[in-house]
Here is the input.
Amino acid sequence: MEYQKLYLTNNECFKREKEMTPTGIVVHSTGVNNPYLRRYIGPDDGVLGPNPGANHWNQPNIKKCVHGFIGYDKDKQVRCYNTLPWHYRSWGCAKGPKGSFNKSHIQFEICEDDLLDGDYFNDAFSLAIDLCAHLCDTFGISVERIVSHKEAFRQGFASDHGDPHTWLKKHDWTMDDFRRRVFTKIQNNQC
Here is the structure.
């Protein structure tokens, strides 16, 4: 599994350096029509491209952070970036009545487009499957412990969000389909 590493060292979550032992994965999607990684990750490393709004998450006082992002670089190539050490607690799903998966789950965002581009969807979710297979293999995480933000909410460990189900549904996928593909990749030793 190939990914770029650009830690969000100025983000408040990174600075707190609270550690965890990963026991699951939460898959998010950003919920806005902007598939470019530079919206969330900065500064420009020559691959991302500049963020004209200077509103990336690598700044003080940002109260959200995840372990990674999948989306377009400046040349519209789908890439994965690791933005927080895998063993750090993230600030990705808030909390629910039973607590928070921020304390136990690796979390990443897939940058949404208008939800209609089938090629982008396939490329982004294929990379997400690769990432999940890699993380499951690396940390001994069971595929059943991969959840969406929506599923994390339903289980009582996240705020009320529906991602990435709206996007999956537009392409006739479910989270069960996603998990099956991760499982197949692991079984075929492709992680």
